[in-house]
Amino acid sequence: MSISGVKALTFDVFGTVVDWRGSIIREGEQLGRAKGIDIDWADFADRWRAGYAPAMARVRSGELPWTRIDVLHRMILYGLLDDFGVTGLSEDEKDRWNRVWHRLAPWPDSVPGLTRLRQRFIVATLSNGNVALLTNMAKHSGLPWDCILSAELVRRYKPDPETYLGAADLLGLRPEEVMMVAAHKGDLRSAQAVGLRAAFVARPDEFGPSVEVDVTPEADFDVNAADIEELAIKLGC
Amino acid sequence: MSISGVKALTFDVFGTVVDWRGSIIREGEQLGRAKGIDIDWADFADRWRAGYAPAMARVRSGELPWTRIDVLHRMILYGLLDDFGVTGLSEDEKDRWNRVWHRLAPWPDSVPGLTRLRQRFIVATLSNGNVALLTNMAKHSGLPWDCILSAELVRRYKPDPETYLGAADLLGLRPEEVMMVAAHKGDLRSAQAVGLRAAFVARPDEFGPSVEVDVTPEADFDVNAADIEELAIKLGC
């Protein structure tokens, strides 16, 4: 474990800091009761999320011009509403529902863990979510970020190297002074490939109880932690 | 006064939120005592700040490529050290002294005022200072920003219209949903010219006791306030 010289921690957000699946199911069920929509909201959440990587891939390949996540989420949402046969939502209601991604709830350890880490490190987002989404989410859920960094600021999506290097550059730091924190090993390995440090946080429940997630610690990550509070302890906070 | 529909307040920082002059004089005097440098630190501070607009103008005109404020501050600093005959500082010491701009102290009303405003609005920086500078300053001085926005993110300096419009776009808001807050009337008028609202905060002491500053309220600003706490009161916080 090599952490000397680390000055900032940049966090993946969806899945690592917030529970997108549980949040969407909860709010979907409320919407369903209010509007008389009786569908499997867990399936809806999973399929919304499943549309995300292919939509970003269309941007990363150049098939689509730069398009922020709010817009990609809405494109996917419109298709899902059709697939699930949901009718009767106004445009305002669809827009409000699309913005559920701005209201995702943190895992229980996220706010206390970040609060501890913030005493010693700069704590920033480094998410494919857009700046407005991340700012509104932080305000909604009390996430104590020092700085909102997003793929939007370099107009490239993770895992493109420009996202990690751009974040370090905006923080005025060398890559090795920045530690990427994520529940997704691919994100961490992409960050490591351009010189950042890596901290893995296990989120076994990200995809729900029936999906097994690889949460095995890895020796080549600088830190492996069960959650963000344990990360704080391991980083001496 | 028209504030309905305002969702975010974007703040000029140097002079409006922090007292650059007092901070640089105080830290300069400390540096002087530590290193045996006996110069007029108020004059040093004023000349450092005076070099800022011409340096940005060179970027705005295209004479220099995009260059962040940390680098412009250092260019000006090197000239000033020569002019004042200051020798014997190592490169590390010069770099640390250049980063005094990351450690500027807030006016007494800034933190309590922002804390109140944050209950109701998104509060963000919108400064020509770079992201690292603003992030470090917030951490140093406890400024409770929801989001760090900077000219650096659009690679244009205020008062270029792209800075104001880019901030609104990143916040996912229409220009009229964003209110620029500044102690500088030109900054506010440039924001208004592209559709933002404007709140003037009087900072009569920004340039020291012997420089008279125009702090007259103006009817065409949406709000005029004596300080950021009064701004919070006037905005119903």
Would you mind describing this structure in some detail?
Two copies of one chain form a homodimer. Chain A is α/β, with parallel strands linked by helices and 237 residues long. Chain A has ten helices and six strands. Chain A has a six-stranded parallel β-sheet, sandwiched between helices. In chain A, α1 (20-35) packs across α2. Chain A starts with 7 loop residues before the first strand and ends with a helix. The relative contact order of chain A is 0.18. The A-B interface holds A 70, 122, 124, 130-133, 135-136, 138-139, 146-148, 152-153, 170-173 and B 70, 122, 124, 130-133, 135-136, 138-139, 146-148, 152-153, 170-173.
Taking pLDDT < 50 over at least 5 consecutive residues as the criterion, the unreliable ranges of chain A are none
Structural class designation of chain A: alpha/beta
Shape of chain A from CA axes?
globular
What percentage of amino acids of chain A are in beta strands?
5-15%
In the sheet with the most strands of chain A, the strands line up as: 3-2-1-4-5-6
Structure keywords:
homodimer, 237 residues, alpha/beta, six-stranded parallel sheet, 6 strands, globular
Q: What is the strand and helix layout of this fold?
A:
The structure is a homodimer of 237-residue chains.
Chain A: E1 8-11, H1 20-35, H2 41-50, H3 52-60, H4 69-83, H5 91-98, H6 110-117, E2 122-127, H7 131-141, E3 147-150, H8 161-170, E4 178-182, H9 185-193, E5 197-201, E6 223-225, H10 228-234
Parallel strand pairs in A: 1-2, 1-4, 2-3, 4-5, 5-6
